[in-house]
Amino acid sequence: MPGNDLARQIKEHLTARQVVELYGFHPDRGGYIQCPFHTGDNHGSLKVYDGSKTGWHCFGCGAGGSVIDFVMRLFGLSFAQACLKLNCDFGLGLTGERPSMAERSALLEARRREAQEKEAAAALYREKAAEYRQLWEAQKFLSPDIVGYIHPLYAEAAKKLPVLEWWLDQNIGR
Ligand SMILES: [Zn+2]
């Protein structure tokens, strides 16, 4: 299977301890962490091996395997994606073999999804900016000074504008 070479290199380069630590787990003195793969593991049943024995094993739910298995399960990735993620997150710069079709299309798919999310965020920003403009005009032209009473749109604008302004500030350039 293409990508096996990369997987082998990753297993040679990384210990389970390094991997779980990068993703925010802190093994106790005995090398145990709370298992992210079953609920209610308050005392920490997942043993992280370091040194001559590699990998990890949860004595609570029986899950276990290599560092790649850990990343696959933690992030819901395929084998190939998990290898690429580890390679990238640890800056290993491993190439393995040429990426397989499956790996390339997984990367393309991830990039496409990212672009879609960006586009959706931009559309939402435009929508909120338009709403902000409308309310800003309502506040200006429907003010009680001009129309002689509290127009409902004016009241709405007074309530929503600060919230919208804050949101637009937070999300600018996203
Ligand atoms: Zn478990």
UniProtKB/TrEMBL annotation:
Which GO molecular function, any one, fits this protein according to its record?
DNA binding
Protein name (Swiss-Prot/TrEMBL): Zinc finger CHC2-type domain-containing protein
Alphabetically list the UniProt keywords: Coiled coil, Metal-binding, Zinc, Zinc-finger
Q: What are the recorded Gene Ontology BP terms? A: DNA replication, synthesis of primer
Tell me which species this is from: Dysosmobacter segnis
* Domain named Zinc finger CHC2-type: residues: 35-87
Q: Which GO terms describe its cellular component?
A: cytoplasm
Which intervals of the chain form a coiled coil? 108-135
Q: Which SMART domains match?
A: ZnF_CHCC
